[in-house]
Design brief:
Length: 401
């Protein structure tokens, strides 16, 4: 598309790849909610994907030490050696990825950058990347920006939104470059069991494609299902890229630290993408992350317990509201609600924000219309107020139609 530049006689275009990618609807909604709050409106926002807790003290102390020690210059572009060592140890000891080595770890500006760098390093024009819906909003846009085509396969509500091995098998073609798996899932909180992941792994092992495992919610789990990393399966060691980060479990969203482990040949190219684009993540945040990984376990358990209580409250309150259904999430901090009557979830979310001052994210943003996502990363008081507004809004919306 050509843009007329105001006051000039030229028309210029921009990248078709970037132009055709969607903006993150989650960010757009939380920005609108912030703007309304700034105007003095009592908005309840249950739209954000970030903990409301403070960053653990050990991380803050390490950051202050780093500043005072003038640790404020360029670092190794893949991240500082001691942090990469700590991450490799974590992958070996907590995730069973016995081949994990510091030399295959890259630290980036958030898990988001790890995923983007990886797709950039893997994809050619014409490649396909399989995404399991409901999906995290950024996957399709990133795939499009990297020149590939997102192929979306959807899980059914009745199957807890899980995609079946048969669905995956039928979606793989000679053009498939990568499959993105996210367990625990944003937006549904669903977790695949070890057996289910092993079934996917068998299919991937027989195909010429990679598996990108986004494990950012690994530590926030509440059910009997144990988190399982596909990279721990020896047959997949040359095919799996594991992504994780500090944002969610450590309440460190603003520090922007994510990390990944990749097989040698992928690592080399991802490292090039990072080295030639952003160099490395912030030096101080790297030191803070090292301290959080080494000393923050008690903090993350404390936050997990709070999240578990908030989940209980959210699910109990939601189950009292007629006309909606949901699954009790296994992990993350979201409940994904599906409606019997409402098909236009985007309209419903705009209505809720405008008339009931409640910000939620429509299912459409996650490739699943007719639903919406509620985040329980908020205080009990905020949750109560928000869910009461949802109940009122749902009733009033039905009457207004
Ligand atoms: C599934 C998933 N992956 C990755 C990210 C990105 O996290 P980060 O803050 O580390 O970039 C998010 C953040 O919302 C997410 O929900």
């Amino acid at each position: 598309m050509l843009y007329n530049i105001p006051g000039e006689s030229v028309s210029l275009d921009v990248s078709i790849r970037v132009e055709s990618a969607l903006e993150a609807q989650t960010l757009a909604i939380s920005n609108t909610a912030k703007r309304m709050k700034a105007e003095g409106i009592d908005v309840v926002s249950l739209s954000v994907g970030e903990p409301d807790f403070d960053t653990p003290q050990c991380a803050k102390d390490a950051a202050i030490r780093a500043l005072n020690d003038n640790f404020t210059h360029y670092t190794d572009s893949n991240g500082i050696a001691e942090l990469r060592e700590e991450i490799a140890k974590k992958f070996r000891e907590e995730n069973g990825i016995s081949h994990a080595k510091a030399s295959n770890v890259i630290v980036s500006g958030g898990a988001k950058q790890c995923i983007y760098n990886t797709l950039m390093a893997l994809c050619n024009e014409g490649d396909e990347v399989i995404i399991l819906a409901p999906y995290w909003v950024s996957y399709p846009a990133m795939v499009v920006m990297c020149g590939a085509e997102p192929i979306v396969i959807s899980g059914d509500y009745d199957n807890q939104y899980k995609v079946t091995p048969n669905q995956l098998k039928s979606a793989i073609t000679p053009k498939t470059k990568c499959v993105i798996l996210n367990s625990p899932s944003n937006p549904t909180g669903m977790m695949y069991t070890e057996n289910e992941i092993r079934e996917f792994a068998e299919i991937i092992a027989e195909s010429d494609c990679y598996l990108l495992s986004d494990e950012i919610y690994e530590k926030l789990t509440y059910s009997d299902i144990k988190h399982f990393s596909p990279a721990s399966i020896p047959e997949l060691s040359s095919k799996v890229i594991t992504v994780n980060g500090m944002s969610k479990a450590y309440a460190m969203t603003g520090w922007r630290i994510g990390y990944m482990h990749a097989p040698d040949h992928v690592f080399k190219e991802v490292s090039k993408v990072q080295g030639q684009s952003t160099s490395h993540p912030n030096s101080i945040a790297q030191k803070a992350s090292l301290a959080a990984l080494q000393e923050g376990n008690a903090d993350i358990e404390r936050m997990r317990i709070s999240f578990a209580q908030r989940k209980e409250l959210t699910c109990a309150m939601l189950s009292e509201i007629p006309g909606l259904k949901f699954h009790n999430p296994d992990g993350a901090f979201y409940v994904f609600i599906s409606f019997d009557e409402i098909t236009d979830d985007v309209d419903f979310c705009s209505y809720l924000l405008e008339h009931h001052h409640l910000a939620l994210v429509p299912g459409d943003a996650f490739g699943c219309p007719g639903a919406l996502r509620i985040s329980f990363a908020a205080s009990e008081e905020t949750l109560r107020k928000g869910i009461e507004r949802l109940a009122l809004g749902l009733k009033a919306y039905g009457n207004s139609k």
